[in-house]
Specification:
This protein is α+β, with helices and mostly antiparallel strands. It is built from 5 helices and 9 strands. Helix 4 crosses helix 5.
């Protein structure tokens, strides 16, 4: 079973609340599980307890949220959202099973990919995100990247086999 990742890199911490709560529209009722750790209080917390993500990440930290579904131009199910921030910048990773995303109809899959990529470009422009990568786990590794978006420009750096690769090849 392969996992796909969408990696938003060098996200300015001041935008994390807008990205997570407005763009990804993650609400407490969508959350199947989450894990936040309050370092000053030395205790575990849940997403519903965090009123301000930028404040939470004022101390370098990592947190995760597992959502049943989120919409990013298209519905994506069973998504692990991992956020890791240093002083002012961090990464947001969306990790989901390829089997929950891929469809046998190449035209439908191509449409889904285009919809997601267009939405990612909008988010990139709105929040000054330096790079967004779509790839196989772990998309931080260059050899696993299927599609890279930098300054609104799309690059397909690697060739892969399978439905997703074919849909991306046809779309871009």
């Amino acid at each position: 079973m392969e996992y796909l990742e969408i990696l938003l890199t060098d996200v300015n911490k001041q935008y994390i609340d807008s990205i997570v709560r407005q763009e990804l529209k993650i609400t407490t009722d969508m959350v199947a599980s989450s894990h936040f750790f309050d370092k000053p209080k030395n205790r575990d917390m849940e997403y519903g307890e965090i009123s301000n993500l930028a404040s939470y990440f004022s101390t370098p930290n990592t947190a995760n949220i597992f959502v049943k579904e989120l919409t990013l131009g298209e519905n994506i199910t069973n998504v692990m959202v991992v956020m890791s921030f240093d002083a002012d910048f961090g990464d947001i990773t969306l990790n989901f099973c390829e089997c929950d995303f891929i469809t046998d109809d190449i035209n439908i899959l191509k449409s889904k990919v285009i919809s997601i990529v267009n939405r990612l470009i909008e988010i990139q422009r709105e929040y000054e995100i330096s790079s967004i990568r779509l790839g196989y786990e772990s998309a931080i590794d260059d050899e696993n990247v299927v599609l890279n978006i930098t300054n609104g420009e799309i690059v397909v750096p690697n060739k892969f086999q399978g439905q997703l690769a074919l849909a991306i090849e046809q779309a871009y």
